[in-house]
Amino acid sequence: MYKDVILIQKRELENRLQETYIERKLSVPWDLSDDLIKVISGPRRAGKSFFAIHLLRQTGSYGYVNFDDERLIAIEDYDEIVSAVNTVYGNPRYLLFDEIQNLPRWELFVNRLQRQGFRLLITGSNANLLSSELATHLTGRHAVCVLFPFSFGEYLAVSGEQRTAIEKYIRHLQDAYLVFSLPRFSFKLKDQAGHNKKIYCNDNGLAVSSGFRFSADRGVLYENLAAVALKQEELAGRISLFYWRNPPNGEVDFVVKEGPRVARLIQVCSDISNPKTLNREMQALIKASQELHCDELWLLNDRSDRTETIQWQGVERRIRLMPLWQWLDR
């Protein structure tokens, strides 16, 4: 009976192997030939099975059992599984047990096979296959690799889209006055061109109506409102607009240049009631003011209207806090 199940699974596997496989950008921390139990863990539908199969295909000798199959869960003599695999696959050198956590007492079975000299690769999706639990179940004789769903680069590979195509779509949206982009500030034009741009929507109403909204979107909408107002000034020829980023020291939303001079730095944060948030926003402004030699600093928010003198790392700056609505109506 179990031989028939594994034979059916083998045929299903052979059909699936005809599908296109996208190489994953993940290096495994092990040598397949050593005696450690290899574990591929991660969320469901992340591609663990295909990843494991393509690792073993290069060996030329492996057997596959998928325990996400109700016909195998009721088995009492686990040696019947090994016997069936040997019959179907001709005594393979490696065994791949997929979704092994569905098998009761799986860890005892796997540990025994490892002691008997089998080379094992197992996959699973629940907490028992997380690295923090494996030390208990597999008593240290294992190596773990965690596989996540497609990264953005892998998604582009499977969808056939290229970065240039995405840039083209963004240009079309810009040409239709639906969005606009903001370059990252640098004193060198070459550096500006090499950094990613920030994208803003020309209409908050459009942004809201075309996507899901959650409370966390409020800060994004605040920033977008300020961006639109500043963009109108730029289109009128009064300013040039950028953003500033220094990875260790955060980001400033808007760098406003008037001619060759950085005239002011503007940070937008809808809720600064949390002192940690307020300090983070102010510290980014101070750091940018040092680098860009600008003393006019603004923090637009939901309600605070005051001027504060702030000291940070031996530097003192005055920062103007103003409600966004008041700044827009100035």
Helical content, roughly?
40-55%
- From the spread of the alpha carbons, the general shape counts as elongated
Relative strand content:
15-25%
SSE string, helix = H, strand = E? HEHEHHEHEHEHHEHEHHEEEHEEEH
The first-to-last residue Cα distance is 80 Å
Structural class: alpha/beta
Low-confidence stretches: none
Q: Reading side by side through the largest sheet, how are the strands ordered? A: 8-9-10-11-13-12
Oligomer: single chain
Q: Using DSSP, what is the number of strands?
A: 13
User: What count of domains describes the coordinates?
Assistant: 2
Query: Count of helices?
Result: 13
Radius of gyration: 29 Å
Largest sheet: 6 strands, mixed
Short description:
The chain has 13 helices and 13 strands. With 330 residues, it is of the alpha/beta class.
What does this structure look like?
With 330 residues, the chain is an alpha/beta fold. It has helices spanning 2-16, 48-57, 70-73, 79-89, 106-115, 131-137, 152-159, 163-175, 189-194, 204-209, 217-235, 275-292, 324-328; strands spanning 37-41, 62-66, 94-98, 119-124, 142-146, 179-182, 198-201, 240-246, 250-258, 261-268, 297-301, 306-312, 315-323. The strands form 3 sheets. The protein has a 6-stranded mixed beta sheet. Strands 2-3-4-1-5 form a 5-stranded parallel beta sheet, with helices on both faces.
